[in-house]
Design goal:
It comes from Xanthoceras sorbifolium. The protein has a domain at about 130-345: Rossmann fold (3-Layer(aba) Sandwich), CATH 3.40.50. It contains eight helices and 14 strands. About 25% of the residues lie in helices and about 25% in strands. The longest helix has 13 residues, at about 210-220. By secondary structure, the protein is an alpha/beta fold. The strands form three sheets. It has an eight-stranded mixed β-sheet with strand order 7-10-9-8-11-12-14-13, sandwiched between helices. It starts with 8 loop residues before the first strand and ends with a strand. The structure holds S-adenosylmethionine (SAM).
Length: about 350
């Protein structure tokens, strides 16, 4: 049994629909009991947010066995088996190998990550993704991302990683203690926050960009006492997730859905891998308000999509519709100017 107690003072935005209950209780169990105490100082920012000063105690007591056996072959979605010792730790990817139980394809770990893309291991074949995906594979962009680039998102209303984590924690309460995928993690800032929070049994940082994963690896290496156990870096395409169906408790996707080649294929994949009751939480930006007055916005967006491969959402309704179409329910969101954080879950 692990018990962790910490007190943090944050200045955060909190959604007003979250109510006053700051506790989540599960039945007594045999595995990790994680206790966290948060004192949060809340700043109101717009009509969607409320001013309050809660003292938060999150108690996670999860029943049954925690599912860490989630990796699957991206070709046939059947489970993979470790050849040699299982390596759910950042330090032991090199030399480790996974094999699909069904198609027998093997996937090797390199220093920073496991390559679980369908084309991994191909020698002559090479393909390129749409520009919005390829862009983040450029080494210099990956290097810059956490060294100034991401910080600029504040101009669009993104509160910043720590505050975004505080916001999403309310959405993630039903799945605390379980596994979480940080989908399109970039250089892994949220995956590192998840791991250090001690609130999850397994954290998988996933991105298509090998250079982003390399950056994440280097950031982790520099951190003292980083909990490397049960923390993995995985290269994969969001449209072909290397996880068994209904095996994942939570998927987070920060500032990424607008970069995905096909948001609907990706959200459908997320829906496939989430277990019943599993939670999807994501952030993006929405071009509404004054943008509504731009003539021909929809055809303009279509052209932008074709050129850049990125998708601009024009309303919260679009996100809700996308989640519903992909089999997720209980959509809710919070806004701060262009920024939106939304959540939906797999039905029980
Ligand atoms: C703007 S960054 C977001 C990084 C981070 N999640 C954050 O909150 O700052 C978008 C990320 O999406 C990733 N991405 C784009 N297309 C992808 C795909 N097809 N599969 C997986 N990741 C993809 C990029 O490599 C990039 O790291």
């Amino acid at each position: 049994m692990a018990t962790v107690t910490s007190t943090n003072i944050f200045s955060v935005f909190l959604p007003n629909q979250l109510g006053n209950s700051r506790r989540c209780f599960f039945k007594p169990s045999t595995i990790p009991i994680i206790k966290r105490k948060f004192v949060s100082k809340i700043r109101a920012s717009s009509t969607t947010f409320v001013e309050t000063k809660p003292t938060e105690t999150i108690v996670v007591e999860k029943e049954g066995s925690v599912n860490k056996n989630i990796l699957a072959c991206p070709i046939c979605f059947e489970q993979v088996t470790w050849i040699g010792d299982p390596c759910l730790s950042l330090d032991s990817a090199t030399g480790s190998c996974l094999q699909c139980n069904t198609c027998k394809k093997t996937y090797s770990g390199v220093q920073s990550h496991f390559d679980l893309t369908a084309a991994s291991g191909a020698k002559d074949y090479g393909e390129s993704m749409p520009p919005a995906t390829e862009f983040f594979r450029i080494p210099f962009i990956s290097f810059l991302y956490e060294r100034g680039w991401r910080q600029n998102f504040v101009w669009g209303g993104f509160p910043g990683p720590e505050k975004e984590f505080e916001l999403m924690k309310d959405y993630l309460k039903p799945v605390l203690g379980g596994n979480i995928i940080d989908a399109s993690c970039g250089s892994g800032m949220f995956s590192r926050i998840f791991a250090k929070s001690g609130l999850f049994s397994l954290v998988v940082a996933l991105d298509y960009s090998e250079n982003m994963l390399q950056q994440c690896y280097e950031f982790v290496k520099k951190e003292e006492n980083f909990p490397k156990e049960n923390y993995m870096l995985v290269r994969a395409d969001i449209s072909r997730l290397p996880f068994a169906s209904s095996s994942v408790d939570a998927v987070h996707a920060g500032a990424a859905i607008h970069c995905w080649p096909s948001p609907s294929t990706a959200v459908a994949e997320i829906s496939r891998v989430l277990r019943p009751g599993g939670v999807f939480v994501a952030t993006t930006y929405i071009l509404d308000g004054p943008f509504n007055f731009i003539p021909f916005l929809r055809p303009l967006r279509q052209n932008m999509m074709q050129i850049s491969g990125s998708y601009a959402f024009l309303s919260e309704g679009e996100l809700k519709d996308l989640c519903r179409a992909c089999g997720l329910v209980g959509f809710t969101c919070i806004r701060n100017r262009r920024f939106v954080m939304f959540t939906a879950r797999k039905p029980n």
